[in-house]
Design a protein that fits this description.
The protein is an alpha/beta fold. Helices cover about 50% and strands about 15% of the residues. Helix 7 links the parallel strand 4 and strand 5. The structure holds flavin-adenine dinucleotide (FAD). Flavin-adenine dinucleotide binds next to strand 4, strand 7 and helix 12.
Length: about 300
């Protein structure tokens, strides 16, 4: 980690909350569901669909995990009531994976069952490598009972190609990402180009099995390579979409939208935004660099 990044990380916890809030406003919709819904409504008016995320992870208490599931159900109800083209995306340890895998399954199933009659979808997110197998087991159980669930897979991990081949037959909906967690070199690619190559290899396997795809990246070179793979497999526009993080490389969203691709924007919100953002930056200092570059560009 560079000296500059280390200095930024040391200073950030002492930056007054209102200033942090101003920096974060680009990436985080606010503290309340109402603020997130406002942002989602604006994005929809500009031609973008959305994914809603309640910030948080690593819940160690069952009642808190149950409260998180309830908050997601309420959010889904509100999205449907306002006829917004948005769905919820939930981190496994936010609904108790680190307490008990069965609890995480129960709560995901509860959210999926709530979303189904609303015509809504539920994305199971992927966290760091130690939680990956548990997350995939929960997802495979969910797939048996619910058709409105999808998963996230990370090209950074060596095992992802084998994981794709191990998924049970049948329709599958995957958000393919590079992976935000910096994993050790013994289990993951650590350099940019091998992560991109692995992304394309994973995409190839997913296309072969006809997966519905979300290409979640702001790497335009990679996106162009991905589109070539989709074209080779004769993917239609309704079988895939680009997904982007709120506030990140908006010029790409409009470029893709104008070219006729669907673009869905990830909208995180929640009272936990400050500790969550600090934790994320400490775990992956590259984010500090991204944010600083964005600020100076502005
Ligand atoms: C919708 C969505 C959902 C995701 N869900 C998950 C998940 O469940 N699990 C998981 O492990 N990862 C997830 N990720 C993160 C993903 O794994 C990558 O870490 C992230 O997208 C950065 O990789 P990139 O492909 O955009 O390429 P990079 O090469 O990292 O970024 C390309 C360019 O985009 C800009 N950029 C990228 N990220 C940021 C940022 N945070 N802030 C400011 N600028 C930035 C920079 O200008 C950078 O040069 C998600 C990403 C998206 C878009």
């Amino acid at each position: 980690m560079g000296l500059f990044t280390r200095a930024v990380l040391a200073v950030l916890p002492h930056v007054p909350k209102p200033i942090m809030r101003r920096i974060a406003a680009r990436y985080i919709a606010g503290e309340t569901l109402d603020e997130a819904l406002q942002r989602i409504t604006q994005l929809q008016a500009s031609g973008y669909t959305t994914v809603l995320d309640v910030l948080g992870e690593g819940i160690a208490d069952e009642s808190q995990a149950r409260a998180v599931a309830k908050a997601y159900c309420e959010a889904a109800t509100e999205l449907a009531r306002r006829k917004l083209d948005a769905y919820v995306s939930v981190k496994p340890t936010h609904v108790g994976l680190s307490i008990d895998e069965n609890l995480a399954y129960e709560l995901y199933a509860q959210i999926a069952a709530h979303c189904a009659p609303l015509g809504q979808f539920l994305r199971v997110e992927m966290e760091d490598a130690p939680t990956k197998d548990g997350t995939l087991r929960v997802f495979e159980r969910l797939r048996h009972t619910h058709t409105n669930v999808g998963i996230v897979l990370q090209s950074r991990l060596f095992c992802t190609k084998a994981d794709i081949q191990r998924l049970a037959p049948g329709p599958v909906d995957v958000r393919l990402v590079k992976g935000i967690y910096l994993e050790p070199a013994s289990i993951a690619h650590t350099e940019a180009e091998p992560i991109r190559v692995a992304y394309i290899e994973c995409l190839e396997l997913l296309c072969q099995r006809g997966a519905t795809l979300s290409l979640a990246t702001h790497d335009d070179g990679l996106a162009a390579r991905a589109l070539t793979v989709l074209a080779k497999h004769a993917y239609r526009r309704e079988q895939y979409e680009f997904q982007t993080l709120m506030g990140v490389r908006e010029e790409l969203w409009s470029k893709w939208k104008d070219a006729g691709h669907r673009v869905r924007v990830y909208v995180p919100f929640g009272p936990e935004w400050r500790p969550y953002s600090l934790r994320r930056m400490r775990k992956n200092p590259q984010i500090v660099g991204h944010v600083m570059r964005q600020m100076f560009r502005l």
